[in-house]
Amino acid sequence: MAVKKYQVFISSTYSDLIEERRKILNILLMADCIPAGMEAFAATDDEQFEVIKRVVDLCDYYVLIIGKRYGSVNPSTGFSYTEMEYEYAKEKGIPVLVFAIDDSVVLSEDKIEQNPVNIEKLRLFREKALTNRLAGIWKTNDELTGQLAISIMRAKSEISRPGWQRAVDYDEATLRREIMDLQTQKNNLETKLNTANNTILSLTAQNNVAFDDQEIRINYHYYSNNYTRHDNVTTTLPMIFSILATEMLDVTITENSISNAIRKQIFNSTSSYFDDDQLVKRILNQFKALGLIYSFWSNEKSALFWGLTTKGQKVRDDMTLIRNMD
Fewest beta carbons within 10 Å, which of 72, 89, 180, 258? Predict the structure, then answer.
């Protein structure tokens, strides 16, 4: 049987982690992986970042190395290109392996972030990234490479990914059987999903869960002139539902995409942050209890996806469609 190889994208700030990236590349090669680092092509504008996104699209796994620098910031988003790569990989459902340097490690000044605003952004980025299931802290390069070797083998065994094989290694009969098995799994999942949706809808009719004109206050913060600014805005649950339901036109999307859509529409910017990092989860739970949305876990993409139920589609259309005037 031919060995399947997996393409792995290596993401980090560059000049402060050159040696670490070199060691990681060697470990991935020994693990029968295809490293996809962008050492010679660091993103410096939106056009170059589009090229990097296309490379990420082709990868099976995404490795993020966090040091003590935030990296170059995209002026249009306020995020570093490294954080943008991470968010894009998460949005695409690519399994993410995170390795962050221990705060106690002493580094030379040129390897430490000096900008106060970027220091705070790095802290938030690190905190967010370390919530991933496959995440760890390292102090030395040996610890880093050791953790990576274990994590990549674990990811390959626990998270199924397409991988790469020579075309001559494919067996047509095997592929046909796999396609038939996948079709059967798809039909079974659709049956279970419809049953679950009907159950939720019947239960919802008996519950007194708030929705119509229910106000919700959102506290948020953003960065301006090297300071963190705080503000709040009051909106309603129907308004928030209208935003995420419009994003769900015939597709299911991740929580990260939903959060970005809400921030873009409510704050008119994706460079502002919710003070409460559980806010979006509570909103989604509210809509799920109302029978408006459903969720499912994708093993292939190792991510939770959200979509509209039949009831949710009707509520969305009632809220957004332009009707003929009598």
Answer: 180
Partner residues linked to 217 by β-bridges: 234
The residue written with tokens 């990236």 in the block is 21
| pTM beyond 0.70, yes or no | no
* Residues 18-43 pLDDT 10s: 999 999 999 999 988 989 876 545 55
CA–centroid distance for 318 within its chain:
30
Nearest to 85 by CA among 50, 136, 119, 112: 50
Report H helices in the chain: 18-30, 46-57, 81-91, 116-129, 141-158, 172-204, 237-247, 255-266, 279-289, 310-320
CATH of domain 198-320: 1.10.10.10
Q: How far is it, in rounded angstroms, from Cα 41 to Cα 56?
A: 13
Tokens 């792995």 sit on residue? 8
Q: Where are the domains of the chain?
A: 6-158, 198-320
| Predicted confidence (pLDDT) per residue in 120-172, tens digit | 999 999 999 999 888 999 999 999 999 999 999 999 888 889 888 766 655 66
Cα dihedral 39, 42, 48, 54 in deg (nearest 10): 40
CA distance 100 to 20: 12
Rounded CA gap, 53 and 225, in Å? 30
Query: Comparing C-alpha atoms, which of 6, 30, 181 is closest to residue 97?
Result: 6
- C-alpha span between 79 and 128 (Å, rounded): 13
Instruction: Tell me the percentage of the chain whose pLDDT exceeds 70.
Output: 88
Asked, colleague to colleague, whether 6-158 and 198-320 share their fold, the answer is no
- CB crowding 210-232: b at 16 or more within 10 Å, else e: eeeeeebebebbebeeeeeeeee
Terminal-residue alpha carbon distance, the chain: 68
Q: Is the pLDDT of residue 215 over 70?
A: yes
Q: Which fold has domain 6-158?
A: Rossmann fold (3.40.50)
